[in-house]
Amino acid sequence: GVPKRSAARQIRPLIGRHLKVFLRDRRNLTIIAVQCVLLGLITALLFRSGVFNRVPRGQRAQPGVLHVGESAQLLFLLVTVAIWFGAIAAAREIVKERSVLTREIAVGVRVRAYLFSKLLPICAVVGIQTLVLVVIALALRPLQQAAGRRLRRCASAFKMQAKMPPKRACA
Predict the structure, then answer these.
(1) What percent of the chain has pLDDT over 90?
(2) With 70 as the cut, is the pLDDT of residue 61 above it?
(3) What is the rounded distance in angstroms from the CA atom of residue 90 to the CA atom of residue 87?
(4) Cα–Cα distance between 111 and 63 in angstroms, integer?
(5) Backbone phi, then psi, for 44, in 5-degree steps?
């Protein structure tokens, strides 16, 4: 038989190979990028601005109380979409790699090492997708109105600085 290396020593080269294959697949990268941006926009557009603001006096709900139903729905939807990102990524890898797993086991790769080599990059990609989703959703539907104004001020300051000519180090 083939001498087996420890699972810990097998993970690193497997991750490297997985990342190389993953980054070469432009179609998959495009789908992942478009998916999180599109779902972030759709999620934000489902809710009105100020979903996390307190209800002003004189409206139907008690003054000072959050729009509990809407804010809970938005948070639930963000969490659900994040879980969906993970499930889709995992399912895609399982289907795509089934024959590869059989070959890897035949040459002595431990199943635990193989699973961790898939799990770590998938978690990283899903984490980035979730971050993009939340940034887009909360940029369009900020946690509170003041946060939205601050975000717009920061964006306009960044635009103004980008338009300024670069300063010369030596005059």
Answers:
(1) 19
(2) no
(3) 5
(4) 57
(5) -65, -40
